Amino acid sequence: MDILEKIKSAIVKGRINMTDHADEELANDEILDKDLLHSVLHGEIIEDYRDDKPFSSCLVYGKDQKERHIHSVWAYSVEHDIAIVITGYIPDTDRWIDHKIRRR
User: Fold this and answer.
1) What's the confidence (pLDDT) of residue 104?
2) What φ, ψ does residue 93 adopt, rounded to 5°?
3) How far is 80 from 76, CA to CA, in rounded Å?
């Protein structure tokens, strides 16, 4: 099972931890928890950060039910079977091509 499938499984089980940073960033972009979770459950990994510590993480792209584009960074703890939201935001079109490819 890949990291996104583990994250989705943890979400379905309600095993989620949100960092203070994620909570602030989501509030800044007016992204509700239900919108974030919908975007991940129907999303895809667009960047993989396998070397992150203490857990590997990934950038997930998805849309909420209103079709807003959402990025979120998630980590997963195998030991605790918990998904950790690192941050979430509406991607800036000046920084992203088609919301999925980082402009260089």
Assistant:
1) 85
2) -65, -20
3) 9
Domains of the chain: 3-102 (3.30.2310)
SS3 80: coil
In 10 A of CB 49, how many CB atoms? 17
- Bin 14: left if φ > 0, else alpha if -120 < ψ < 50, else beta: left
User: What confidence tens digit (pLDDT) does each residue in 48-81 have?
Assistant: 999 999 999 999 999 999 999 999 999 999 999 9
Integer Cα distance of 31 and 47 in angstroms = 21
Per-chain mean pLDDT for the chain: 95
CA–CA separation, 23 and 19 (whole Å): 6
Classify strands 44-49 and 57-63 as parallel, antiparallel or unpaired.
Answer: antiparallel
* 3-class SS shares of the chain: helix, strand, coil, % to 5: 25, 35, 40
